[in-house]
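To: structure subgroup
Subject: Chain for Friday's discussion

All,

I'm putting the inputs and outputs inline so they're searchable in the archive.
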Amino acid sequence: MAKKLSKSQTVVMNWLSKGWKAYSVSGNRVEVNGNAVGTTATMATLEALGLVEKIGVAAWEASAAGKQWRPAGSTAA
């Protein structure tokens, strides 16, 4: 998958592609496993790219495409 992601989008996808979920905890701040990873704007962009899906009101998980996502230069299959 050849999508160019920002640093914060890459951090989010590193977590979500492994099965974690992201939650909006305060204002527009988004966390995964208690770690701040981005904002709701970050998640909206990833959703528009088809990499994440919104679950509930303030949570996201990797879509089927997002579960296949690997960082640029990664050789992991």
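Points worth raising on Friday:
The mean pLDDT is 90.
Helices lie at 7-16, 40-48, 64-68.

D.
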